[in-house]
Write a structure and sequence with these properties.
The structure is a homodimer.
Chain A lengths: L1 H20 L10 H14 L13 E4 L13 H13 L12 H5 L3 H4 L3 H13 L4 H14 L15 H12 L3 E9 H12 L6 E13 L2 E12 L5 H9 L6 E4 L5 H8 L6 E6 L20 H9 L2 E4 H4 L9
Parallel strand pairs in A: 1-2, 1-5, 2-3, 5-6, 6-7
Antiparallel strand pairs in A: 3-4
């Protein structure tokens, strides 16, 4: 028994060493961003070090569109809205002659969006409001199971960045709590973020419309109202973070000017910080866009990243694989 | 070594049995509420049982005032506001003649609140807004360290119910995530809930005022604005729960009509549910109040509890100890 015990101990030691030697970020090339991530995580988790951060304070926030999954040629939530307009059209004969719905139903996106923000809002409210929270959850869950990307034909949930999934797992393995902080709809994300990213609904922060509690035949429901509650973008990302988390992240990850204030808020805290921007530079494997793009514009935040030495991922150079389906 | 090893194993076994045999709710009498709690927890955690609930879905929500700590003779947050009015008075000479401040500074609470909701709002905004989130956190942290109850002379953080602390610990030991869902200010609670209840800031839901992101000399701050953002009470408690947690609790704990809709929302879900009301029945050890009380009125929710067989704690009969300092 004594021998067996020692043998077990030895096996355990070997296993532990093997596990710690395994690369937690295999889809990342051994370039500067990966080194910065690993150095940061080792720095804040080393007990006794002056940079040590207790587990409870290891908060990491991630933008979603363009940071965890793709956002071209159009935000995926807008694909959802288009599909919903088409599905709901039979119940809305008036849409045949009413903009922006008429153009949208004809597939003329450009004309549908000519009405600007007002047109966008009309499309969002007609497809995201008017039902209970439970009904909306089911609609999203059903849709995301089969929704495919218009260019690649892949499931949208496969248009997720493999290196970022590894990063989420690596941070969580080191005691971090990972949150999404997205301009996208909070209830559009929650039905699938746990399965796809391992991020539970209570760690998803996003834009929202108002809801109202009602008793319907004695049964309580929450009804989604066609009224904006909160737009979780730009200067309101730190507001959303404070509202939901109540402490400042020590690491934040974004890809556009919409994330600038979140990165500023994160890095202005005391102790070690990590700010990382995913720069879309790979026109072959993904899309290449930054300062001039209507979607995911990265201009001011790119300047600030250079000025403040934030970590910038060059997708073409720094990522071995892009999508989960490549692995 | 072999003998030592076996001895250690035996000790471990004994220790484990002793621990599991220990009563997790020693401050509760062996009456119906304790039995209902233990039965519920065993039911939802028994693997393979049809009532089993996965850990991720074990969400429990707790009201704060009157449920986790006392709320008489006046909500403790109002004691904070009074102390702040006194502290800020030198900077506001105009308060000497301006209501509700003039009466408040003279200690005439009744007259100060004669202006109703408007007076209350003025007091709240003048003491809770106008500073950064960091400055407010420090003000609350400093205050709560020494703030005492006007009748008992105890620290307010000692006016916490020992049976409820045991309940929080018991639920967490069984995989529950415990949240506060209070009408009180979210940023008034967060600085101390982790220390006092073991509930981290990201699991605190409460009322809030709006905040605004600003760069001050290049440093990002969140400024607290004198504008209501959300009142987390009554029919808006389920709204707050959905906004912050995104899933329905399986257990909820309250003490007043302000918790009625939270209890309705919780119990309307599928699978086993626990709804519990703390009924203040002990005029000797605490306070006795319900249907007629201005603070913590329990009327409609008490009727509904009887109708729907929710668990009602009779503090006098069901609790061996009330406050943490009694133990």
């Amino acid at each position: 028994m004594k021998k067996l015990f020692i043998k077990a101990l030895l096996l355990l030691l070997i296993f532990t060493n093997a596990a710690s030697a395994a690369d937690p970020l295999p889809s990342w090339n051994d370039t500067a961003p990966k080194k910065a991530i690993v150095a940061f995580v080792e720095q804040v988790t080393r007990e006794g070090s002056p940079d040590f951060v207790p587990v409870a304070e290891r908060v990491a926030t991630f933008d979603n569109d363009g940071t965890l999954w793709a956002e071209q040629p159009i935000y995926f939530q807008f694909l959802f809205a288009i599909d919903r307009v088409n599905a709901l059209a039979p119940q809305h004969p008036e849409w045949k002659t009413k903009e922006p719905f008429a153009s949208l139903l004809k597939g003329d996106m450009k004309r549908a969006l000519a009405g600007g923000e007002h047109a966008m809002l009309e499309i969002v409210m007609s497809t995201h409001a008017g039902m209970t929270t439970e009904a909306f959850e089911k609609i999203v869950t059903d849709w995301i199971t089969t929704a495919k990307h218009p260019d690649t034909g892949r499931l949208l949930t496969e248009m997720v960045y493999q290196p970022m999934l590894e990063l989420l797992t690596y941070l969580r393995a080191n005691g971090f709590k990972t949150f999404i902080v997205s301009g996208g709809g909070i209830e559009f994300m929650r039905p699938w973020t746990e399965k796809v990213y391992g991020i539970p609904p209570e760690q998803v922060i996003g834009s929202s419309i108002k809801t109202k509690f009602e008793l319907r035949d004695g049964q309580p429901v929450l009804v989604r109202l066609p009224e904006i509650n909160f737009i979780d973008d730009k200067a309101d990302k730190p507001v959303g973070i404070q509202m939901h988390i109540g402490r400042r992240p020590i690491a934040s990850f974004g890809n556009s000017d919409g994330d600038l204030q979140m990165l500023q808020w994160t890095t202005a805290g005391r102790s070690a910080r990590l700010a990382l921007i995913v720069h879309h530079t790979d026109a072959d494997r993904e899309w290449a866009y930054d300062r001039e793009s209507a979607i995911g514009r990265l201009d001011k935040a790119l300047d600030e990243a250079q000025k403040k030495s934030w970590t910038v991922v060059d997708m073409k150079l720094d990522w071995k694989f892009i999508y989960v389906f490549e692995k």
